Amino acid sequence: MPRDGSSCIRAVVRVRPLLPSEISRGEEACCEVKDATNLLIRSAEAGKWRQYTFDACLPSDRTQKQVFQESGVINLLDAAIDGYAGTVLAYGQTGSGKTHTILGQAIDGSARREDAGRLDEGLVMRSAKRLFRKISNHSRGENPGDGGDDPTSFSISASFTEIYNAPGAVNECISDLLAPTSGNLQVRHSQKHGFFISDLQEIQCHSAADVRAVLEAGVQNRRVGSTQLNRDSSRSHALFTLRIDSRTPSVSSSNDSPAMDGSPPSATAVNAPTRRYGKLTFVDLAGSERLKESLAEGHRAKEAQAINKSLFTLGNVISHLSQGKNQQHVPYRDSKLTQLLQESFGGGALCLMVTCLNPGASFWEESSNSLNYAQKAMSIRNRPVVRLDEQQQIVQNLKLENANLKRELEAYRARFGRVAGSVDDAPDTPGTMRGLAAATSGSMQANPQSAPTSEDPTLFDRRQEQQQLQQQQQQQQ
Q1: Would you say the pTM of this structure is higher than 0.85?
Q2: Cα-based distances in Å from 148 to 140, 224, 271
Q3: d(CA 429, CA 370)
Q4: Which residue among 39, 65, 211, 453 has its CA within the 20 to 30 Å range from the CA of 434?
């Protein structure tokens, strides 16, 4: 999914329509999608329009299906199937449509809302359905290049967690939404996996229906609250992760070319099975809010302050990374959220940032701040890599190092080949490079055993180079 073949973060903006309550009180829209990649926002104070450019701009009339097709999630999902790590992150102020974009219409599992939920599914369920269709084709060998003889097997698991501020807690708390009684989970760090949540439960999923069941169970345990800006405001950051482990059976290969001595081709070689560990994480961030607008009080006000602090830390990380200074300190450890998103911002994962906007003119300042952060995120460069088995990763690193050494060797030979070519123009005297080459040739004819064979055509060049260096050192002395 990298934009223009690079590894920059992809930024998409989605503008929600004005709500009936907003229209009834005379709210006017300050955001206008100009075309597929450009958006205009009007300042309520100066009345001037400012233009922003992103990878995609989705107007208010876009359906959930169109958002899934146009945002770039499909490419991110296909990369996760191939073994990459990907993140889809919804960012914006409270009430801008982040949860609706990621999770879709509220899921309660009842038959009364089943049809409506299917028509209004978010990115999670639409990705899950495409995922199982895709791996079903892989398993049957129907994809181009598979050959159909050695189908790839997949194992899909899901986890659902949230980061919130508990009453009386100083720091952020982490809860497993699939096992809410497990208490406050801890963020650990390892050289191999980076930051991760310890003791997080993962549920094996064999179909999209299993993913829906996991999603429904987690949504029921998520913390929500009512404020003046949003009746069902998310009071936590939610992270839903699909892990896609794949195993391609060993491939038999043979050397069809005969050996140099004329013997038959070599025996069949069997490669080890290829194991890939892709994952796709959907992040539904809690929305930023102002207390004078949300009218939150008591614990709700403390929640809002903790959410704003967490989002401020994320914005600080984005600002540091967007400056492109490799040596500066990036404050990942200032928040558990930024620790878990380190791989997505400046790490080895692909990232899609969906910025959701409230088009109301009363909230133009919050919308402008969200767009500024999204624009900064576009300049962050990640280093996406395929997540392989540890032993296979070592083999791949060795192959890469071998390729680099071959390129260096070719450059070395090309350099000294040009030096050797200039010997023909020098006079044939003992004190010159041409005389040295002639003397070397004569010594090799006197001692045939030291002459290079057809199996080592570079031996003569290496000896000639050594003698040239010795001759130069003697002349300097």
Answers
A1: no
A2: 7, 48, 18
A3: 77
A4: 453
